[in-house]
Design brief:
The structure holds two protein chains of two kinds.
Chain A: E1 3-10, H1 13-25, E2 33-36, H2 43-46, H3 55-76, H4 93-120, E3 128-129, E4 139-146, H5 150-159, E5 164-167, E6 170-171
Antiparallel strand pairs in A: 1-4, 1-5, 2-4, 3-6
Chain B: H1 2-19, H2 34-46, H3 50-77, H4 92-116, H5 126-148, H6 173-193, H7 196-205, H8 209-219, H9 226-259, H10 271-297, H11 301-304, H12 307-338, H13 341-352, H14 356-374, H15 377-380, H16 383-410, H17 425-445, H18 453-462, E1 463-468, E2 471-476
Antiparallel strand pairs in B: 1-2
Helix pairs in contact in B: 3-17, 4-5, 4-9, 4-10, 4-16, 5-6, 5-17, 6-9, 7-8, 9-10, 10-12, 10-16, 12-14, 13-14, 14-16
Classes of the chains: A alpha+beta, B mainly alpha.
């Protein structure tokens, strides 16, 4: 049987959380539900699993790469072109610490920024399932069910206070 | 008796009314529907009067003449058209660099530190402050390139393998400057952009024509899924923590440009924190000015930016003033007692010489006047007054940088070289950088939402009034 993706729009968090609970009761798994909101809503408020993210791992990876690059700039490259300053070593540690710190932070910040792009698949200009009301503070719950059950789920969502329940359509944002 | 009781009862009422504050005066306890707030912010971006265009035109003219034309002329003629010469071989360009980097510090301080400490009053004005960071750093960067003279050779600063047998000297504070400022520019721009994405998506949903295309490209396809929010908030938290040490490092390194030299007035071990505090001092003052102008000139801003925000900012300014005064005095008193002849000469020159007016203004504007005024809540809650104090602080801080750079270079250990620094084309280029900063701000105020609406709504959702006994008490819950 083919599947349909329905979109239920809720005014507030409470009915949206109740709707998600109902969907669970009716056998819709979390992998078939997606929630879109205009503010970040903690997963526990909606009774949803903790969303994964690689951003923090990428940040740490970036920091490590930056640290190594800083070490290379400081302690590797000066040997290519000797510059003797005031009797200092060619690769003194105190100034090296400054350069290494800056490179560590720069790479960590860049990796974090790119991490958001990678994890969120940005930029994404393809047609996507979306409703403008989300940025007006509404909560949109998308869920995938078999086409035959669509009516049953629509009624359930309406009973729980959905402002509208309709088939989700991908559109150009 | 009746009169007495009436009097007492009146006093009691007055006492009560003084203490019973209406929670609605606070943005977080005066929520509006998100759609309405979106509409207000969009309208503020779309509304321009003829005055706006006149000011924009004047600034654009100043940028073309005082920035691009004057700089082009200096490149064509050479650095001699400026006033920089021995002994003051560092002049106004570096004064501007330090000044603008200082201005840029407040954006990060307000946004990152207050985010880390979950200070709720930050919500409506973090973006306005972050924009100051980015635009301030652009002016700081431009000033460094102006100072460089042969700007087309700036790539020599970068570690690019080459056949010229040249390699950057990583022992030099100037090289640390390049690395620290580059890190800060990139970091603060990314930190500005990340929380802007949801607001760009909001603007995309409410725009047509070229604006729709503009916001669509910049919003990157953001919808607000659970995953997108999670990645964004994790990244924003990381940025908030990571950008703070970068911010501190930048101005500390700028101070080392001076402190590493064995020169009267410069060689000081407290120069690092003294510079950082000076940067925050001027930056906070600039934020007060920006908020005042935003509130006075942009539609609906009086809903988002309220007396409570000026009050909180005023308290921060007061705290920073005390800290700055402490470091200033620490630096000053040690030099005063030091007994070094050259330093004595410098201090006498500052206090009695031809630049004494600048030194006295600096002390009054930055150390004397702010604490005398900012202790008063009435002053802190009066936007124009706080902006005026901010302006005074910035004038004073500009003089402080001027005294540190060309003046302290002039009064050195070789009295036969003493010659008062006279800026020439630098005056026009300074006007140019200030005009460009303001021009960028004005243009961007009509292009991107200056109020982070989603952050305001998030704050309003977490604040509520709880009835305890007879009173309604403000409460805050955690969403994360």
């Amino acid at each position: 049987m083919s599947e349909a993706t329905l979109l239920a729009v809720f005014e507030d968090l409470d009915p949206a959380a109740n709707a998600i609970e109902k969907l669970h009761e009716l056998g819709v798994g979390d992998e078939n539900i997606n929630v879109i909101s205009g503010v970040p809503v903690a997963h526990k408020i909606l009774g949803r699993p903790h969303p994964w993210t690689n951003v923090s791992k990428l940040s740490m990876g970036g920091a490590a790469a930056g640290f190594l690059f800083g070490i290379f700039l400081n302690f590797g490259t000066p040997n290519l072109y000797d510059i003797h300053v005031g009797g200092q070593f060619i690769t003194p540690i105190p100034p090296g610490a400054i350069v290494t710190f800056e490179m560590t932070m720069l790479f960590a910040l860049l990796a974090t920024f790119l991490g958001v792009f990678l994890d969120s698949y940005f930029p994404n200009y393809r047609p996507l399932e979306y409703v403008d009301e989300v940025s007006d503070g509404k909560i949109a719950v998308f869920f995938r069910v078999s086409e035959g059950d669509a009516k049953k789920f629509t009624d359930a969502m309406n009973t729980l206070g959905a402002e509208s329940v309709k088939p989700a359509e991908a559109r150009q944002l | 008796m009746t009169a007495t009781s009436k009097y007492l009862s009146g006093a009691h009422e007055a006492h009560d009314s003084h203490h019973e504050e209406d929670p609605k005066q606070y943005l977080m306890y005066d929520p509006k529907p998100r759609g309405e707030m979106n509409a207000m912010v969009m309208e503020s971006m779309h509304t321009t009067s003829w005055k706006f265009w006149v000011v924009l035109g004047v600034l654009a003219f100043l940028v073309v003449t005082c920035f691009f034309f004057a700089w082009g002329y200096m490149i064509d003629e050479g650095l001699y058209v400026g006033g920089v010469m021995r002994p003051a071989y560092w002049g106004v360009f570096l004064v501007n660099t330090v000044f603008w980097i200082g201005i840029s510090h407040a954006g990060t301080f307000i946004s990152a530190i207050l985010r880390v400490f979950k200070a709720e009053f930050r919500r409506p004005f973090t973006r306005a402050a972050e924009l100051m960071t980015t635009f301030g750093l652009i002016q700081a960067g431009a000033s460094i390139f102006m100072h460089m003279g042969r700007v087309w050779l700036s790539y020599w600063m970068f570690p690019i393998p080459n056949a010229r047998q040249l390699w950057p000297n990583f022992h030099s504070p100037l090289m640390w400057d390049l690395l620290a400022i580059s890190t800060y520019v990139l970091g603060s721009t990314m930190y500005l952009f990340l929380p802007l994405i949801p607001d760009l998506a909001m603007a995309r949903d409410r725009s047509t024509g070229w604006r729709k295309t503009f916001y669509k490209i910049l919003a990157l396809g953001f919808r607000g899924t659970e995953g997108e929010w999670r990645h964004l908030t994790v990244a924003m938290n990381f940025f908030a923590f990571a950008i703070i040490p970068v911010m501190f490092s930048v101005h500390t390194i700028v101070s080392w440009d001076f402190a590493m030299a064995m020169r009267p007035g410069w060689s000081s071990s407290v120069f690092g924190p003294y510079f950082v505090l000076g940067a925050l001092h001027s930056g906070m003052g600039a934020v007060a000015m920006v908020l005042f102008v935003m509130r006075a000139t942009m539609k609906h801003m009086d809903y988002f930016i309220r007396k409570e925000h000026f009050d909180a900012l005023g308290k921060l300014m007061l705290m920073v003033t005390f800290a700055y005064t402490y470091f200033f005095f620490n630096d000053y008193i040690v030099q005063w007692y030091g007994g070094d002849k050259a330093t004595d000469n410098l201090l006498h020159w500052l206090e009695e010489g031809p630049m004494a007016w600048m030194f006295i203004q600096f002390v009054f504007f930055n150390i004397v006047i702010p604490p005398l005024l900012l202790w008063s809540k009435k002053v802190r809650e009066t936007p124009w007054l706080l902006a005026l104090i901010g302006l005074m602080i910035n004038v004073g801080m500009y003089w402080e940088r001027y005294l540190i750079i060309p003046v302290m270079l002039t009064i050195n250990r070789m009295p036969f070289t003493w010659k008062l620094f006279q800026p020439r084309i630098e005056v026009f280029l300074t006007i140019g950088t200030f005009s460009m900063f303001l021009l960028f701000y004005m243009i961007v105020s009509r292009l991107i939402p200056l109020i982070p609406v989603w952050e305001v709504q998030e704050g309003q959702m977490t604040h509520s009034l709880r009835k305890v006994g007879k009173a309604k008490l403000p409460t805050i819950s955690e969403f994360e």
